């Protein structure tokens, strides 16, 4: 899936993307809430109209962005510090913004830890991801066609991945996103964690691995039974003229 974080894929028009066979685009609800902002986006029927994109749109919630900016994580949400302002991005806010956007695939707010990490840090992040997923599910009032994914965390620890899946299965999410990979683990850890995770997932439910763009990693994800994936790498490398 090509990535249009702020509502557009850099250097590519929607028609060019359609001509190349793109079926789904990825945008980011957190980034869109900042710019162009909810007031402007609310004037459109949906993000599809705003982007002039007729096909499926997946919106991430912004949990990964916490790793890229000055922030602090509390039970309420993620508090960002930007120049002279402070604000808290909560699970409820992430869902409310995605309802305004009308994206087809909606992501709950989660915690993605950078690897390597300790078992206790990974466990704390996974458990908070579960608690936030429950809050997201409680306020999810979907527009027609919207579905809410469960984002699986647990770093490279099989028992944490299993625990997250068990809880989400009881919550009856219709689809799953595999988070917390391609964030610093070794290739061996990536393959092992991917295999453990996908083996525990119901085969009839959609599987999305987040932020995978390296050709080798994509092929390994497909081999493991993943259905969809996204990354800025293909379009970024094309713009930069890399071999």
List keywords for this structure.
243 residues, alpha/beta, TIM Barrel, four-stranded parallel beta sheet, 9 helices
Quickly give the structural class: alpha/beta
Figure out the total of helices: 9
- Roughly what is the average pLDDT, rounded to an integer? 94
Molecular shape = globular
Give an account of the 3D structure.
The structure is a single chain. By secondary structure, this protein is α/β, with parallel strands linked by helices. It has a single domain, classed as TIM Barrel. Helices cover 41% and strands 16% of the residues. The protein has helices at residues 14-19, 29-41, 47-51, 91-101, 119-139, 158-171, 187-199, 215-223, 233-240; strands at residues 24-28, 56-60, 71-73, 78-82, 85-89, 105-106, 147-148, 150-152, 175-178, 206-209, 228-229. The longest helix has 21 residues, at 119-139.
Task: Set down the secondary structure blueprint.
Blueprint: H1 14-19, E1 24-28, H2 29-41, H3 47-51, E2 56-60, E3 71-73, E4 78-82, E5 85-89, H4 91-101, E6 105-106, H5 119-139, E7 147-148, E8 150-152, H6 158-171, E9 175-178, H7 187-199, E10 206-209, H8 215-223, E11 228-229, H9 233-240
Parallel strand pairs: 1-2, 2-6, 6-7, 8-9, 9-10, 10-11
Antiparallel strand pairs: 3-4, 4-5
Helix pairs in contact: 2-4, 4-5, 5-6
In short:
By secondary structure, the protein is an alpha/beta fold. Helices cover 41% and strands 16% of the residues. It has helices at 14-19, 29-41, 47-51, 91-101, 119-139, 158-171, 187-199, 215-223, 233-240; strands spanning 24-28, 56-60, 71-73, 78-82, 85-89, 105-106, 147-148, 150-152, 175-178, 206-209, 228-229.
């Amino acid at each position: 899936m090509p990535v249009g974080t702020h509502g557009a894929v850099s250097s590519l028009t929607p028609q060019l993307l359609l001509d190349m066979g793109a079926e789904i685009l990825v945008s980011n609800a957190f980034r869109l809430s900042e710019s162009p902002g909810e007031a402007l986006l609310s004037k459109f029927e949906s993000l599809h109209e705003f982007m002039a994109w007729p096909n499926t749109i997946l919106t991430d919630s912004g949990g990964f962005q916490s790793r890229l900016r000055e922030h602090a994580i509390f039970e309420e949400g993620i508090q960002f510090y930007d120049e002279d302002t402070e604000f808290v991005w909560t699970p409820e806010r992430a869902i409310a913004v995605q309802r305004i956007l009308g994206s087809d695939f909606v992501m709950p707010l989660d915690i993605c830890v950078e690897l390597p990490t300790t078992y206790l840090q990974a466990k704390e992040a996974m458990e908070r991801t579960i608690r936030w997923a429950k809050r997201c599910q409680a306020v999810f009032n979907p527009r027609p066609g919207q579905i809410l994914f469960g984002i699986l965390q647990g770093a490279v620890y099989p028992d944490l991945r299993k625990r997250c899946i068990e809880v989400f299965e009881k919550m009856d999410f219709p689809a799953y996103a595999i988070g917390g990979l391609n964030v610093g683990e070794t290739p061996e850890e990536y393959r092992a964690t991917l295999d453990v995770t996908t083996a525990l997932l119901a085969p009839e439910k959609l599987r999305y691995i987040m932020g995978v763009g390296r050709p080798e990693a994509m092929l390994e994800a497909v081999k493991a039974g993943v259905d969809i994936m996204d990354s800025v790498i293909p379009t970024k490398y094309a713009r930069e003229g890399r071999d």
